[in-house]
Amino acid sequence: MKRREFIRGIAGAAATWPIIAGAQQPGVPEAGLLVSGDNALVRTLREGLREHGWIEGQNLILHVRWTEAKQERAQAIAAEFASMQLAVIIAPATGQYEEVRRATSTTPIVFCTHGDPVGTGHAVSLSRPGGNMTGLSLLHDALSAKKLEILLEAIPTVRRIAILFDPTVLTAAINRGAVETIAVRMGIATSFIEMRTPDAIASAFEKAKTESVDAVFVLPSNFTYFHREELSRLALLYKMPGMFSYLEDTRAGALVAYAPDLTDTYRRCAGYVDKILRGANPAELPIQQATAFKLAINMRTAAELGLAIPASLLARADEVIE
Hints:
About 45% of the residues lie in helices and about 20% in strands. The chain is built from 13 helices and 13 strands. Strand 3 (about 90), helix 4 (about 95-105) and strand 4 form a beta-alpha-beta unit. The longest helix is centred in the first third of the chain and has 21 residues, at about 5-25. The protein is elongated and about 60 Å long.
């Protein structure tokens, strides 16, 4: 075995030692967590669990697995979690909770940012989910309308937008329908461009350029979140102002984002985990709507694009990157 591979193997084994030791503690509930790759959100969830009295290594074992926004990894992790005796599985985002739902219909599942739990068949109703899934959801129509309104306020000359999205996401069709309905109502022409792999990002912008769009509108997904830096870089390179789906996008260079405060939603998700660990039935835990939304604007990007953002919009922004 090569020296580098040996060291990597030792490091990987060491990373599992605390989990193995914790799993041997009798009577301690175990939970599984799928995440794409954001340590800050993992910390937020853990802090939320501690606020509810759940201390890892003492009265809770938390198995954290990183999907890296790869669907095959999400599938493998979902299958692994389904085979374990877990009290609850936390699958925060789109692409994660669907794989877990396919893997198990009995282990309780908590999601943090579901696009449409009723529309996708994951819940009978918001007030009474009726299955093994519950958590926090977003209202697509209202959110899409607000995002388009903000984009038009920032750039009143926009008449055609390219909607960049990952078609493999369960809620892709619902997202598309919501944006298209609102855009037609506002008199905005739309062009939908798929991105399935990292290599498709550059070609998506090239296609948007050939279609003479005025701006891009990036739909939320694990894929777009994980590749936010590349998306933001290319939007600037192609001189295409964009409305993005996560506050972190503007920190990576995107022009504007109107998005749920993920810190708030992940902390609230910890409350669902707490209830289930204490015996609550997910079928009877009402699905709540995300209530904390923030507007972020990157003024450095606006300057490079030659845009003058209205003072009225800047005054409403929760975060302005100078």
